[in-house]
Design a protein that fits this description.
- The chain is elongated, with a radius of gyration of 30 Å.
- By secondary structure, the protein is mainly α.
- The protein has helices at about 1-20, 25-35, 55-80.
- The protein is built from 3 helices and no strands.
């Protein structure tokens, strides 16, 4: 009877590993168990460096204000030519 239980358990494990859509809670349990075994090292937010260098604030402001000015000019141009 033990061989049958071992065979069924092995079959269940193979079926679960081959499943296309695994149960989310089973995946969460697996990740939790892995985290218990391999504790991640602590990191502070101050050590994190951005992946992309930040733009300066004046450049962002110039882009926004330039877009607003261009929109105002476009609307004014369209309004003056719509009268004729």
């Amino acid at each position: 009877m033990t061989e049958r239980d071992e065979f069924e358990q092995e079959f269940d494990l193979q079926w679960a590993n081959a499943a296309v859509h695994k149960e989310p809670s089973a995946q969460a349990r697996m990740l939790a168990a892995r985290r218990q075994e391999e504790q991640p090292r602590p990191r502070s937010f101050a050590d994190a460096e951005p992946a992309v260098p930040r733009r300066s604030s004046w450049r962002s402001a110039a882009i926004v204000f330039g877009g607003i000015v261009a929109l105002i000019v476009l609307l004014g141009y369209a309004r003056t030519h719509a009268l004729y």
